[in-house]
Specification:
By secondary structure, this protein is an alpha/beta fold. The chain has seven helices and seven strands, in the order βαβαβαβαβαβααβ. It has helices at about 15-30, 40-50, 65-80, 105-130, 155-175, 200-205, 215-225; strands spanning about 10, 30-35, 55-60, 85-90, 135-140, 180-185, 235-240. The protein has a seven-stranded parallel beta sheet with strand order 3-2-1-4-5-6-7, sandwiched between helices. α1 crosses α7 and α3 packs parallel to α4. Bound molecules: nicotinamide-adenine-dinucleotide. Nicotinamide-adenine-dinucleotide binds next to α1 and α4.
Length: about 240
Amino acid sequence: MGKLQNKVAVITGGASGIGAATAKLFVSEGAKVVLVDLNEEKGKAFEEELKAQGAEALFVKANITSEEEVAKVFKQATSIFDKVDIVFNNAGIGRVHSSHDLEYSEWRNTVNVDLDGVFLVAREAIRGMLENGGGTIVNTASMYGWVGSPGSAAYNAAKGGVINLTRSLALEYAEKDIRINALCPGFIDTPIIPEENKKELSSITPMKRLGKSEEMAKAVLFLASDDSSYMTGNSLTVDGGYTAQ
Ligand SMILES: NC(=O)c1ccc[n+]([C@@H]2O[C@H](COP(=O)([O-])OP(=O)(O)OC[C@H]3O[C@@H](n4cnc5c(N)ncnc54)[C@H](O)[C@@H]3O)[C@@H](O)[C@H]2O)c1
């Protein structure tokens, strides 16, 4: 029996990168998955790919910064699959830009997706989990939630916020059987990292390579499943040694 047999998992950013790799692993462990993403073309195609392999999967196009759209995702998920047990709160954006000429609108947009959106999804997830008697949430932060870097002030501030949001929500709902942890990836080979930066980012990583989405998925499975049954409020760093420096 799989580690997530008959569990229902909502995965934001589920059409690409870390979210898609996690959906594949969850499905192989017996979960039904609800893929949430802005990218309809990729999301639909991935839903079909998973279904063709015999999985129960549903793609829902939604923007995690919209309260209404986030509420609709959970409504749709529960109307089809009855309940939501696991939420991988993972959609995010990242851009490099020097801070002295960063437009306020761009700051707001980054914080809106990478922090506000994570809150909106967590809030809706918790509402359902309170009714169902529990669940697990894994928020995607970043190693840049722990350490700084030049040119990514908005992203790093938002990701630092996700780490402390995770601690705070975990404490608030610990007695309600809702475990909330975060994943802090290092440099992972996904479309979020521009091709031209990959060589340099590998060279500044102690393990001298980028991480793979599949390596993140294994850590997410650990945090989402009973394998981490006594963990909450934790932020697990999987970064090839970067933050050990
Ligand atoms: N790849 C890395 O090096 C790395 C490192 C640290 C943290 N992360 C984090 O991992 C998460 C996943 O990123 P990834 O590397 O898989 O990148 P990705 O670009 O492959 O996937 C992100 C997905 O999120 C979706 N998305 C973006 N904004 C959205 C919104 N407002 N509503 C709904 N969906 C939205 C995108 O369409 C995309 O499919 C992000 O939160 C990112 O910040 C990535």
